[in-house]
Amino acid sequence: MNLDTQIAKIIEANGAALYDTEVVTEFDETIYRVLITKVGGVNLDLCADISHELSPFLDVHPPMNGQYRLEVSSPGIERKLTKPIHFQNAIGEKVKLKLGGGEKRKGTLKSADDKGIVVESKQGEESYTYAELNTSKTYFEWN
For residue 116, what pLDDT band results from cuts at 50, 70 and 90? Predict the structure, then answer.
């Protein structure tokens, strides 16, 4: 069983789901970020509860070499889409895509499967394989 699977089980025991994990460096500090989602939203108490359960587990099964700080949070309203399940869970949302060659697209995610996505943009419906996407994320239009 890999580390993400074990982390996901701890999160699921708290009524939430693992969205993703990432390692980032901010101000010379390495952060191991665990992103969680929950129907109805994620609050600070939930993040704290999961952090308290993950911390001793990660002391025994460290996610990386060296020192790091554990951070448990929501991926936010504007979030990266990196896995097919992320796209599948974002169907109906507005997305920004960066394609090969620096080309950009904005539109509404219409469908997603294990091979690629369909986006409704100003140009009409367009299909992309995951290999054609450099970066993708949801976005929110503030009115």
Answer: very high
From the DSSP assignment, how many helices (H) and strands (E) are in the chain? 3, 8
| Rounded (to 5) percent helix, strand, coil in the chain | 25, 40, 30
pLDDT over 90 for what percent of the chain? 89
**d(C-alpha 22, C-alpha 69), whole Å:** 12
CB atoms closer than 10 angstroms to residue 28? 5
Beta strand pairing call for 69-73 and 29-37:
parallel
Task: Please report the domains of the chain, with CATH numbers, ordered by start residue.
Answer: 3-73 (3.30.300.70), 84-138 (2.30.30.100)
Strand, coil or helix: what is 81? coil
Q: What is the mean pLDDT of the chain?
A: 94
Comparing C-alpha atoms, which of 83, 92, 95 is closest to residue 17? 83
